[in-house]
Amino acid sequence: EQIPTIHSYSLKEILDYIDTVSEEEIGFISAAFEMNMELLEEGLVSERTTIGPLLFVQNGKKRFSEDVKKTAQLLCNGAIEARVLGLSRPAMSITGSGAHGIIATMPLYAFYKVETDVPNDKLLRATALSYLITMYIKEYSGRLSAFCGCGIAAGTGMACGLAYLQGADYEQMKMVIQNMASGLTGMICDGGNQGCAMKGIVAVDAAFRSVEMAMNNVCIECIHGINGMTPEDTMRNMGLIASPGMVKTEEVIVDIMRHK
Predict the structure, then answer these.
(1) C-alpha distance from residue 218 to each of 126, 192, 221 (Å)
(2) pLDDT bracket for residue 142 (50, 70, 90)
(3) What pTM, to 2 d.p., does this model score?
């Protein structure tokens, strides 16, 4: 069996790449923010959405307030709700999923817009890191599984991006991954529906909390739970929980939905 290319890299090597890649090479990423912001706008004017408009009110009726987390919740989950309700704007996807793409980018964009001293190239690097970590976990869990790849894989990627924006070192990045693995792993996927926005809200909360803990050098240590001895092992274990771990769960979820 062929090893996916991304699994031949360590977290250290991924971080080295993120630090040294030219801005030109990753400049294309900025299109994701524009596309996903247009999707959010569509959600804010639609009569079908409920979560996005509430998050907008909670953010002081602003797209960008002084509160990073509330802004992140709005940008991320207002766009996800618009996506899963099938509004007419596209989302920029990653690993074949629009909601993954939204979670992996929009909280980072919120941080960039609210904390105005972050240079543009740092936002691009943080987002590239988010994408790579998302892909790393997804290659273990599979394209479709009974776990919420949006919250778990993209959420962990995004958390690493948030940590990068705050100047985390390698050890702190490991802590972020361990904190996310200990908290979110096992969140189910019950198809693309409005509940994805709720899962996204939980993931954004978890990411901000995991990063805050890691930046204070606090984490769930590797002797606990499914955390591995290396960040690579931890991400692999997260994926294994989904596949093969949650095959039976998937049958039960489908069964429940079929009999509603």
Answers:
(1) 21, 34, 9
(2) confident
(3) 0.98
